[in-house]
Amino acid sequence: xxxxxxxxxxxxxxxxxxxxxxxxxxxxxxxxxxxxxxxxxxxxxxxxxxxxxxxxxxxxxxxxxxxxxxxxxxxxxxxxxxxxxxxxxxxxxxxxxxxxxxxxxxxxxxxxxxxxxxxxxxxxxxxxxxxxxxxxxxxxxxxx
Length: 144
Ligand SMILES: Nc1ncnc2c1ncn2[C@@H]1O[C@H](COP(=O)(O)OP(=O)(O)O)[C@@H](O)[C@H]1O
Ligand SMILES: [Mg+2]
Known about the structure:
- By secondary structure, the chain is α/β, with parallel strands linked by helices.
- The protein is built from three helices and seven strands, in the order βαβαββαβββ.
- A hairpin with a 5-residue loop joins β3 and β4 (79-83).
- Magnesium ion (MG) binds next to α2.
């Protein structure tokens, strides 16, 4: 990703639209990219992650890493889908072996980044999904 700031706000009316936005975001990523996904349970973080995976050429089902903590999808650019929901903080994240992945050659997607303070904020592509009253999702995204 280059220096130019990417900032946007999008309203998604369906899981398919969220998947497509994820695919667009995925197209901006490359080796070493980190994406954080904020949003309440059921907001659509894993749906968006599946769109990113599709953009990276990963076929097949993306499943929630809530219980596995890290799901790895092998590809030319590997994808690490990490869920920090069940982690107490940085120390747990390190013990899970996730910290080194942030500085590797893959793309990292991290759900529940608010559990952590060790993320290199300046190189993170941040996404936040808010469930609106009408059920649509407001999706904010910003790099750096
Ligand atoms: N606009 C939307 N975008 C994403 N998901 C949506 C949308 N509308 C409804 N949904 C539903 O909300 C749920 C989101 O689930 P998931 O992606 O697992 O949430 P999270 O990972 O944030 O807990 C899915 O069941 C999906 O079908
Ligand atoms: Mg999820």
